[in-house]
Every structure is written in structure tokens, then in C-alpha cells.
Amino acid sequence: MWRRAASLSPLLSPSKSSLLHQGLCRLTFWGAFTTDIMHPAKGGIASKEKLPFITFVLGGPGSGKGTQCAKIVETFGYIHLSAGDLLRKEIASNSENGKGKIVPSGITVKLIQKEIESSDNYKFLIDGFPRCEENRIAFEQIIGMEPNNVLFFDCPEDEMVKRVLSRNEGRVDDNIDTIKKRLKVFSALNLPVIKHYTEKGKVYKVNAVGSADEVFEQVRPIFTEVCNRISAGFEVCDYNNFKRFWMD
Ligand SMILES: Nc1ncnc2c1ncn2[C@@H]1O[C@H](COP(=O)(O)OP(=O)(O)O)[C@@H](O)[C@H]1O
Ligand SMILES: O=c1ccn([C@@H]2O[C@H](COP(=O)(O)OP(=O)(O)O)[C@@H](O)[C@H]2O)c(=O)[nH]1
Ligand SMILES: [Mg+2]
């Protein structure tokens, strides 16, 4: 069963230099009461009809993030951004960013930002990111906001190992040695990020054991509730957040 730690209140990060700030400064007092942002400066995230509604999808390697994201896309019309896929594409394109070195957070965030800015949707699943505190902080500084919520697939290690070893996607990192390293990274670096958002009441924790359809039956009511809150106008624009953000 899934549970959410506390009520959700998407807080915009107070950092004034953020992209959103440049855009939102144009927000009129009246605009703060509506769910649609006035069309501010050209380009950038804030020039879209609405603020991006962002869900981080986290969990260990093989916990089922990609599989469940595909089902959420199909059922609820989100855009699925897999940070791992974006990085693999970079490496394949042999760009400066991907030549075998460990990509710094800022570059991963910019890959994600580019996808958000070029999409005509405003609901995004960011799959497999952030993977550490440094990732999380870079996202907040560059994008200028926190995620609206976080979906965490909780899966026992032996089940994750079994699934990754039978995942025949031709990935060079799907072997027993690398999976063990990735599991160590997950518990050392990813779990503190999940703890951070749990303390902010933003995490929906889902038991990832069971068939993909059984797991999705836990995911479905979460997104039904979230979609209801978005259409009620609460999630995309919370006046108090904007007032604090706008008046500071
Ligand atoms: N609930 C499940 N039960 C069994 N196998 C699953 C389940 N969910 C996903 N898989 C399979 O396990 C592998 C890893 O799933 P994936 O969605 O890629 O996980 P992640 O993106 O978290 O690494 C894939 O081969 C996928 O088909
Ligand atoms: O923001 C990210 C996302 C992924 N990765 C790297 O890309 C690999 C594959 O990530 P992906 O999410 O595709 O793996 P999965 O959890 O789906 O097996 C990870 O092990 C990381 O080493 C990274 O460095 N930063
Ligand atoms: Mg994946």
C-alpha cells in the first residue's frame, strides 16, 4: 500500500536568482490568484502556460521506476524524463558532456531542463533523479523550484538484483558487479534524498514487490488524487507560496 507522510504544499525555493524568479517577477497581484502564470519573459520555464508540475520517481536499480513511469504516462498523460536515458543519449552522441567522465549534476539538470522547456506538456516524471544531495541542490538552484511530489518504489535488494540481471536491454551496467556498486550508491546517496523529501511530506512510498500490474494498482490512486488536486488549481499555484515568493 502507498502512503504519503504529510499534506503536500509545493514550496518554491526562495532563491531569487532562479529562472522562475526572473519570470515570476512579472506576475501581477491578480495573477497570483489564478493557476495560470502571466506570460513573462521570453523563453525559460516560467514562460509556459503553467508552472511545471514535477514528480521525482526514485528507487533502487531494478525497483521498477521505468516500468511504472510508462504506465503513468499511458494512464495520466505525463512526460517521462529518464535521467539515465538522457545521459546515455549524451554518451552515444559523443558530446563533450558524455565522454565517459562522471557527468556533474549541473549538466544532468540542464539536460532535464532542456526537455522541460521544449515540451508543450507541464506534467513531468523525472525518473532516477536526483541520485544524491548534490543533484537535489543543483536542481533547486538551476530550475528554481522543488518537486511537487516524490514517488519512491521500495524494493528488496535480492528482487532488484534478480530483475536487473534479467533486464535484457543491452545495458553495460546490468551485470552483477556493477549492480552491487549501484545498490551501495543507492543506500549511501539516494536514500538521504528520499529522507529529505519524506521530512517535507512530499513522498509517496510504494511497495514494489508483486507483478508490474499489482504495483501499478497502488500507483493509480496516487495519481488520480494528484490529478484532482491539479485540476482544483491547488497544486500548480498555491497563493501563499506565490505571495511569499513574490513579496519577498
Ligand atoms: N513488478 C515487477 N515484477 C517483475 N519484474 C519487473 C517488475 N517491474 C519491472 N520489472 C522488470 O524488471 C526490470 C527492471 O525494471 P525497470 O522498470 O527498468 O526498473 P528501474 O527503472 O527502476 O531500474 C525490467 O526488465 C522490467 O521489465
Ligand atoms: O541523474 C542521474 C541518473 C543516472 N545516472 C547514472 O546512470 C545510471 C543508470 O541510471 P538509470 O536510472 O537508467 O538506472 P536504473 O535505476 O533504471 O537501473 C546510474 O546507475 C547512474 O550511474 C547518473 O549519474 N545521474
Ligand atoms: Mg530505469
UniProtKB/TrEMBL annotation:
<dbReference type="GO" id="GO:0005524">
    <property type="term" value="F:ATP binding"/>
</dbReference>
<dbReference type="InterPro" id="IPR027417">
    <property type="entry name" value="P-loop_NTPase"/>
</dbReference>
<keyword id="KW-0665">Pyrimidine biosynthesis</keyword>
<comment type="similarity">
    <text>Belongs to the adenylate kinase family.</text>
</comment>
<dbReference type="InterPro" id="IPR033690">
    <property type="entry name" value="Adenylat_kinase_CS"/>
</dbReference>
<protein>
    <recommendedName>
        <fullName>adenylate kinase</fullName>
        <ecNumber>2.7.4.3</ecNumber>
    </recommendedName>
</protein>
<keyword id="KW-0539">Nucleus</keyword>
<dbReference type="GO" id="GO:0006207">
    <property type="term" value="P:'de novo' pyrimidine nucleobase biosynthetic process"/>
</dbReference>
<dbReference type="GO" id="GO:0004017">
    <property type="term" value="F:AMP kinase activity"/>
</dbReference>
<keyword id="KW-0808">Transferase</keyword>
<dbReference type="InterPro" id="IPR006266">
    <property type="entry name" value="UMP_CMP_kinase"/>
</dbReference>
<dbReference type="InterPro" id="IPR000850">
    <property type="entry name" value="Adenylat/UMP-CMP_kin"/>
</dbReference>
<keyword id="KW-0963">Cytoplasm</keyword>
<dbReference type="GO" id="GO:0006221">
    <property type="term" value="P:pyrimidine nucleotide biosynthetic process"/>
</dbReference>
<keyword id="KW-0067">ATP-binding</keyword>
<keyword id="KW-0418">Kinase</keyword>
<keyword id="KW-0547">Nucleotide-binding</keyword>
<dbReference type="Pfam" id="PF00406">
    <property type="entry name" value="ADK"/>
</dbReference>
